Amino acid sequence: MTLRILDSHIHMTSRTTDDYEALYAAGVRAVVEPAFWLGQPRTSVGSFTDYFDSLLGWERFRAAQFGVRHHATIALNPKEANDPRCREVLAEVPRYLLKDGVVAVGEVGYDSMTPEEDEVFAAQLEMAKDAELPVLVHTPHRDKLAGTRRTLDVVRESGIAPERVLVDHLNETNVALVRDAGAWAGFSIYPDTKMDEHRMVALLQEYGTDRMIVNSAADWGRSDPLKTVRTGQEMLAAGFSDDDVDQVLWRNPVAFYEQSGNLVLDPVPGFSAGEPPTPGVEFEGSSVLRGARA
Question: Apex CA 274: angle with CA 268 and CA 275, to 5°?
């Protein structure tokens, strides 16, 4: 089977061009890169806006050189919501939500479930409603079940339709809550932490493939951008059909992010597999590098 994959949550800013080549060879034709914590605390609004500009300009251009369509989600992430130096970026987020390539507000949600995170989460849900964008939600690494319950309460209070919400980093403890709420269920297949392929297949056997989305969450930590591929292979080995795999790895993430109206899945013009990239060649959307729709 030839896989086609949209990795719904991957931090390509942290990855190399070798990763892009490997992703394309494995069937990944599109990615979504959520704005997230870079590991080093940011100290000013300018460091955020430079990062957002890079996601929407340079990283899209870099991905296209390897045949991959790149999209982003934009937000003040939960971890940095607790730093008063970062809060001013909330005033900048709405204008970025109008830019080409933005397919959701995210990552939003909880890290430590503080009052500051409550406030920032609710504010950005309102921004999503105003911009008519879906929402990518980060569930906390600690107290995940309590954090998921709180997340779903806040989403309900916001009035956002649950089908416009993807709750990510789920596991066996909270998947039922998310599915019962009518939201999309996201799973990060990540070495040592989060989920692995075998546990993911077991959940798919229990809950089915509807509204289930698998991603690699590959970033600057010990991670593997091909975990989506490995999950698809594990699904096939467990008796799932080619169609089941296509639904989980392609049709489900496409259906979710298509709600933005900004998802681009056409092949990259001028790209030839196996040929070296040609920096500077124009491609559809490269005008973002020149500040389009700024």
Answer: 75
The Cβ-side half-sphere exposure at 19, using a 13 Å CA radius, reads 20
Judge contact between 104 and 164, C-beta under 8 A.
Answer: no
pLDDT of the residue at 123: 98
pLDDT in tens, 234-259: 999 999 999 999 999 999 999 999 99
Tens digit of each residue's pLDDT (9 = 90 or more) over 158-213: 999 999 999 999 999 999 999 999 999 999 998 766 789 999 999 999 999 999 99
Instruction: Tokens for 119, please give them.
Output: 């406030």
**Do 100 and 288 contact (CB within 8 A), yes or no?**
yes
Question: pTM of the entire structure?
Answer: 0.92
199: its two tokens = 């546990």
List b or e across 66-104, with b for residues whose CB sees 16 or more CB atoms inside 10 angstroms.
bbbbbbbbbbbbbbbbeeeebbebbeebeebbebbbbbb
